[in-house]
Amino acid sequence: MPDRIVLLVLFAALLHASWNALLRGGQDKLWSMTMMCVAVAGCSTIAACALPIPAPESWPYAALSAVLHVGYNLFLVRSYEAGDLGRTYPIARGSSPILITVGAAIFAGEALSWQVATGVLLISFGIVCLALGRHRLSPAGFRSALGTGGFIAAYSVTDGLGVRLAAQPMAYTAWMCAMWGVLMPLVYMSRRGALSLIASRPGRGTALLGGVVSLVAYGLVIYAMQAAPMGAVSALRETSVLFAALLGHVFLGEPLSIQKCAACVVITAGIFMVG
User: Fold this and answer.
1) Which of 15, 125, 231, 268 is packed most tightly, with the most Cβ within 10 A?
2) What would the pLDDT profile of 1-13 be if each residue is shown by its tens digit?
3) What angle do CA 73, 75, 78 make, to 5 degrees?
4) What angle do CA 200, 205, 209 make, to 5 degrees?
5) Do residues 1 and 228 lie in contact, with contact meaning Cβ atoms separated by under 8 Å?
6) Contact status, residue 112 vs residue 168, Cβ threshold 8 Å
7) pLDDT per residue over 173-190, tens digit each?
8) Alpha carbon distances (Å) from 165 to 31, 44, 55, 98, 254
9) pTM of full prediction above 0.85
10) What is the DSSP string of the chain?
């Protein structure tokens, strides 16, 4: 994998952990998530109008990915309502690299070398280890986090296939995110009504900023997927749990134990094997 791709994906991982920390710290997480999607919809629509139209073959993938992203949002909110960032985030992100690697092998015919495959396994193992310990998640929280990982794998493989058919990766990303950003507020309004969405609340600006950050982070990952194997890109992206552990400790007061530090060492070893 080229060095520039490794650096881009690691930067995307930092951005991803940052907006997840913003979401976890919010009082009404469903509302915050929806506000983030409003920002995603606005920025993506502007970008889509300035970019070429993606190839017709990629549109079904973009539509499916938009729906899968909404499912991911809902499960992520449920996960953060059930547990802290340092527990739920590792399970959600740690389960996805292996699922994505398997999906990419089945649907895209990707074959990873033993070194990259070992790195993916090390990263996933280290990430899951971050979620273990005395203060474990409730069964409901564990199921929500694992379901989040399933949606991550599903939309990542879908986008990896779609972007390779689109001819214009950034245009594909813009149109997919625009659809996703519109769908999420519709789901929110079906649950709580339009007045609840537009009512003035503290934290709106922070949530909107989080949406912009999430869009940039995923755009970088989409770009990387056209130049490197999906499983390897996903594994590097999931090193965002390292940043999440630090952000959770510094800004949310979550403990940073010896076990978490050891898991970080395992993840770092996996990064070197993948990169």
Assistant:
1) 231
2) 788 888 999 999 9
3) 110
4) 145
5) yes
6) no
7) 899 999 999 999 999 999
8) 34, 19, 7, 24, 42
9) no
10) --HHHHHHHHHHHHHHHHHHHHHHH-SSHHHHHHHHHHHHHHHHHHHHHHSPPPPGGGHHHHHHHHHHHHHHHHHHHHHHHHS-HHHHHHHHHHSHHHHHHHHHHHHS-----HHHHHHHHHHHHHHHHHT-SSSPPPHHHHHHHHHHHHHHHHHHHHHHHHHHHHS-HHHHHHHHHHHHHHHHHHHHHHHH-HHHHHS--TTHHHHHHHHHHHHHHHHHHHHHHTTS-HHHHHHHHTTHHHHHHHHHHHHS-----HHHHHHHHHHHHHHHHH-
CA distances for 205 relative to 37, 101, 211, 259, angstroms: 13, 36, 10, 36
* Mean pLDDT computed over 119-147: 78
Residue 218, token pair as written in the block: 């995923």
pLDDT tens-place string over residues 36-62: 999 999 999 999 999 999 999 999 999
Q: Determine the residue type at 158.
A: T
Record the tokens describing residue 61, joined without a space.
């993938």
User: Tens of pLDDT along 68-108?
Assistant: 999 999 999 999 988 778 778 888 877 777 777 777 778 77
